[in-house]
Amino acid sequence: MRDEANELHRLLKSLGRADWQRATLFKAWTVDDIVRHLHMGDRMGLASATSPEAFRALMDDVRARRAESPSRLEETKQRLNGLAGPDLLDRWRATLDALCAALAEKAPEARLVWAGPDMGLGMFAAARQMEIWAHSQAIYDLLGVERPAPSPRLRNIAEIGVRTFGWAYRNRGLPVPPIRPFINLATPFGESWTWNTPSANEAVTGDAFAFCQVVTQTRNAADTDLHIAGPTARHWMSIAQCFAGPPETPPAPGSRHRAAPETGRRA
Known about the structure:
Elements: H1 2-13, H2 31-50, H3 52-68, H4 72-79, H5 85-104, E1 111-112, E2 119-120, H6 121-143, H7 154-163, H8 165-170, E3 182-186, E4 192-195, E5 203-207, H9 208-215, E6 227-229, H10 231-239, H11 261-264
Parallel strand pairs: 3-5
Antiparallel strand pairs: 1-2, 3-4, 5-6
């Protein structure tokens, strides 16, 4: 989680002030919007890690304010008093570092209260890592910058993607298919990651990075080189959602992409 934040922090430190207000291809959220969203998640996480009572009070206040706010983004912006740009970056990073320190002090079997069911320590940290990784993609795309080469920590995100197979269906009120597709992902680290019973009839094979993009809805499966075999695998990849919240429609083919380098960066 900390390493994922370090990578995003290096990118954000390079931004000009105007970049923070530019709209990304993720729901037209600006860079400010994305970092405020990440900061609010870490602020909630820190409350959960230090005081379940404080977390519940914060959640009650968030729900009350969002019921009266025109949007979730606007409620967060108001809560943070319009915090933006480099000042927002400093606040986000300080809160995330405090959260990492609080999590590191806990026993491995600890559980944290959350907006939904309680979460185990490892899954909670991996989910926060996944949020950082997924939202970073929109900023890399906006700037026309290629992401750094994947590291082995990408496995945490792939693992969440595989584990949320049933969630993608239940979240939409659909029956969960009885057979889970075989997952076989290639990595640049000289190893393959596999899950479920080997099958040629129901399978998702290809690059681990591309799989993570699809399950986090930063790319449509059609815009990747993943090989998807079987009706269940194809349907799952069309609705895959490894994050909490109401059902989200994955991006349409071609709608999420990296900007051309010459149009990417502004002062």
